[in-house]
């Protein structure tokens, strides 16, 4: 996430001004929390009048909707190359899509960690839930198609691909408390039970998804060793022994 305060330019196109307001909201929600951020905060950072703000958004909730939609479209953009690769079979395609959505790539995990910190800080559960819902609405149809293709090729044994995808994507929300606990542990300068529990939860989620798809346990790659340490930005030398 870009944490640079946007320039307070006056002569922006309506589209650019709207994008600037969303940029400011993203920064403020990350630093102050969604609940604590006011429309006045956004106006001050963007350098716009009250009328200028309400020309684009009717409320803070509408601004949140725009931010959630942006982040959902960004998530979709990360999986589009996988979806469009004609050489991938349904299993490989789904495995790569789920890994990308779940953890992004290990080499970009520190950037993902910044987004994690924003979504999981106190006061941002509304932000987390809205982003999750937006991502589900946008990516669920394309993942459903991948699963349906796999069912047609007898790779997956799923009676209802759409319901299956909803369950898979909702597993992210199930880890909210475990991620928050691991972050609190990190902020205390510790590395112990909370991170281990989060790894175990991720492993169990992977097994649950395998079984939903009618696959043997351990078929999908749900979490890779060391990735959570990178996402949580743990200091070198404190990584898990996994």
Automatic annotation (TrEMBL):
Record domain HTH tetR-type: where: 15-75
Entry annotated with the keyword Transcription: yes
One Pfam family linked to the record: TetR_N
Ranges of the DNA-binding region feature: 38-57
Annotated GO MF terms: DNA-binding transcription factor activity; transcription cis-regulatory region binding
Key words, A-Z: DNA-binding, Transcription, Transcription regulation
Keyword Transport: no
Gene3D superfamilies named in the record: Tetracycline Repressor, domain 2
Family annotation (PANTHER family): HTH-TYPE TRANSCRIPTIONAL REGULATOR BETI, HTH-TYPE TRANSCRIPTIONAL REGULATOR RUTR
Protein known as: Transcriptional regulator, TetR family
Source organism of the structure: Pelagibacterium halotolerans (strain DSM 22347 / JCM 15775 / CGMCC 1.7692 / B2)
């Amino acid at each position: 996430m870009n944490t640079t305060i946007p320039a307070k330019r006056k002569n922006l196109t309506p589209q650019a001004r709207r994008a600037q307001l969303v940029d400011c909201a993203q920064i403020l929600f990350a630093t102050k929390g969604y609940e604590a951020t006011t429309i006045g905060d956004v106006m001050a950072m963007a350098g716009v009048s009250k009328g200028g703000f309400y020309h684009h958004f009717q409320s803070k909730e509408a601004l949140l909707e725009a931010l959630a939609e942006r982040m959902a479209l960004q998530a979709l953009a990360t999986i589009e190359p996988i979806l469009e690769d004609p050489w991938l079979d349904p299993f490989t395609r789904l495995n790569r899509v789920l890994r990308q959505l779940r953890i992004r790539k290990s080499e970009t995990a520190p950037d993902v960690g910044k987004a994690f910190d924003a979504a999981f800080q106190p006061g941002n559960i509304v932000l987390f839930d809205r982003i999750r819902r937006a991502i589900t609405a946008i990516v669920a149809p394309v993942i459903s198609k991948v699963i349906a293709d796999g069912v047609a090729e007898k790779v997956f044994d799923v009676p209802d691909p759409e319901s299956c995808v909803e369950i898979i994507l909702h597993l992210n929300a199930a880890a909210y408390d475990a991620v928050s606990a691991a972050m609190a542990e990190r902020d205390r300068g510790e590395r112990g039970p909370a991170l281990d529990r989060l790894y175990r939860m991720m492993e169990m989620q992977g097994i649950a998804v395998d079984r939903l798809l009618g696959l043997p346990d351990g078929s999908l790659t749900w979490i890779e060793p060391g990735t959570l340490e990178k996402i949580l930005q743990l200091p070198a030398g404190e990584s898990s022994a996994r």
